[in-house]
Amino acid sequence: MQAYVYKSLRKADTYVFLSARDDFARVPEPVLRQLGSLQFVLEVELGPERKLARADAATVRENLAARGFHLQFPPLPGAPVAEAAQPDA
Prior knowledge:
globular
């Protein structure tokens, strides 16, 4: 499954994974308003073997299949800085 990853320019370390590039229609409007402008950062294959740093890849795939999007929020305090600087792919 392909995923298209966008970072929020308003909310630091917050990312949106989409099942189709630039298809924000399935993301609820209140969520989009809170995130502000989104910038494309990555296209990634989310196969069963894919490991993600801050999310369970199976959960991301399930959310993409069911909703068309997955939100990745900032790491909890104390998470390594290197992980915080990148989307999970």
